[in-house]
Each structure stands twice: as structure tokens, then as C-alpha cells.
Amino acid sequence: MLSSTTDEVEAMEATEQPAISSHVDEAACKAYYFWLRLVFGGFVVTLGLIGNILTIMIMRKQKTKTTTMLALTYLAIADFCVLVIYGSMNLISPILDLVNNRSVAFKIKLFIARCLIQPSQSFNLVSVYITVIVIWQRYVGVCLPTKAKTYVSLRIVKVQVVCVVIGSVLLYLPSFSIDCFFPEMMHFDLRSTAIHAGFTIFYDLILSYTISYIIPIISLVTMSFGLVRGLRNMKFQGDNKQKTKKEMTFSLVVIVIVVVICQSFAPIRRILRWKYPSYKMAIRCGGDLFYFGPIEVLFVMINSSCNFFILVVCARGFRGKLLALVKRSPAVGPAIDRTNDSSGTRTTAFVDA
């Protein structure tokens, strides 16, 4: 989650300014942005888009649809959208730096910062909360098996996803309207008034960060600890189903760890703004925070790109389904864990693959 539109506008303005000192190598700064954002960022986006498409194809090919499979499909779709919009913002900026017309380049960057930041935050919020839904399916199956019939069903997953989408749109709609259609309201003099300061504190700091970071991260960490305890209490008999179930649960815990790390750079950026009153100067070439500038966007893209690869590495059954898809042959991996099927009789719906 990007800290705010104002932060991004300042970051883009900083790229238009010369280095803070004549002793700073501006060529090295430009090379850093080029290789990190354009080359590495493009590589991450490409792998992520391919991975999410393959995940959707694998889940759609399963004959028996379970709640976790459905949630994973929605998660892959959300991550695909995140990569498209964040990837576009990340790649356009260094490409525009190569354009000779700096005025046109800056206007395009400013439009991106004002009109695309909020939609990108909305997509990212949907991705984070669908991750919560996925982990919840597993948590119920492992830690609350007797409650599965009440808490887990295909219909409940669909309702949860719809509520997440509507909630994320409503959360960022006010700031999107102000930033994109009434940018003059973001002028410093107006922002310094008591009324606007109160709105900023409540909306941008308290409400947005509570909903977009504190609540989902606490939920994910709490359920992950529950999954780890549930794994320790399980009595494995060495059969294939138990092994695949353990592998899939472990892969979900790894996904949570990645989400917590990648989504933590927005609050870090906010803290750095408090530490550096002249934040606009600090992120310029030669400033203390220059190398931190593009990291937040990159980690959001990494977060939306890595779920597929985590499942491939940690879950044998998922690898089997992937090989079957590539070879266009019947799946050869371990069977699907059908605790959490649509009937709700048992619940941990997931591809223990």
C-alpha cells in the first residue's frame, strides 16, 4: 500500500530535480532507477503475470471445486490486476525519464500519481484480504473442524470476496475523487487548515492504516500461529494425504510471512516521513532515502508475484497439477484435499498438491 498520493507526487517531483550535491553521481542514480524499476521490476511483473495465469488455469481445471480453490482463484485474479496496474506505474516512470520532453513526462507522472495510486491501493487491499480469506479456509479446517459447516462454503467465499471488493472501493473512493478531480484541494495551504488536518489524521492515518494494514496483518499472523500449532498437534501416520496436507499448510504459512514483509514498507515509509521533515530532499539523488524510493512498489509487486512459486516449491500436489497442465495429461500429483468442499461436511478446501 502506497503511503499517500502526496508521497508519490513528491517522489516523482524528486526524480525531476537535480542531485542535492554537485559531488553526487547523477548517472549512477539514473542507472539505479533504470535497472531496479525497469529491468528487475519488469522481470518480476512478467513472472508474476505468468504465474497467476497458470494458477487460474490449474484451479479451473479441477473437477471438484472447493472453497479454498475458489479463494485461490480469486486471489490469483486480484494479484494479476495488482501486477498490471503497479507494473504499469513502475515501468512508465523510468521509461518517461528517457524522453527528452521533461514537461510532458512530468505531467504524465503527475497524472499517474493523482489518478492511479488510489485504484492501485484498492486492488492491493483486495489481494491482501482475499489472502486472509484463503488462510481462513485452512484455519477452519485445521483448528476448527467442527465449525466448518457453519463458516465455510462456496457461497460464503463468494460473498466475502464481493464484500472485500466493495469495501476497498468505498475506502479509497473519497481520496480518489479529491486527488484526481479536485487536485487543488491537496494544496499545502489547504492541507494545513485544522479541518483538513483532522480529515487527514482520521482518514489517511487511522482509518486507512487500520483497515489496510493492522487488521489484515494481525488476522494473518494470528491464524498462522494457529496453523503451526495445529500442525504440531497432528499425528501423521506417513500416508500421502497427511504429507500433502502438511505441505500445503506450510506453504500457506510461508505466504503469510511474505505478505507481512512486503506490506510493511508502507508504514515504514510513513515513519521515515516523520523522521525526515525534508522528505522531498531526502529522496532526491544523493539523499538518505534515495535508494528506498522505489522499494515499496517493488515489494508490492513481489508479493503479488510469488504465491504461485511458493505453491510450486512447497506443495507437491500443486507441482503435479502444473506438470499435468504443461503436458496436457491427467494430473499425477497427490489427490486434492477435499476437507472444505462445497457441501460443508468437512472443511479445509485446498489443493494439497
Automatic annotation (TrEMBL):
Q: What Pfam families has UniProt attached to this entry?
A: 7tm_1
Q: What is its main location?
A: membrane
State what protein this is by name: G-protein coupled receptors family 1 profile domain-containing protein
Species, as recorded: Capitella teleta (Polychaete worm)
Keyword list (alphabetical) reads: Membrane, Transmembrane, Transmembrane helix
Which positions fall inside the G-protein coupled receptors family 1 profile domain? 51-311
Transmembrane spans: 34-58, 70-89, 156-175, 195-228, 249-268, 297-318
Q: Where in the cell is it found?
A: Membrane
A GO CC term?
A: membrane
Going by the entry's taxonomy, the superkingdom of the source organism is recorded as: Eukaryota
**InterPro entries from the UniProt entry:** GPCR-Ligand_Int, GPCR_Rhodpsn, GPCR_Rhodpsn_7TM
The coiled-coil regions, if any, are none
As one GO molecular function, the record gives:
G protein-coupled receptor activity
Keyword Membrane assigned to the entry: answer is yes
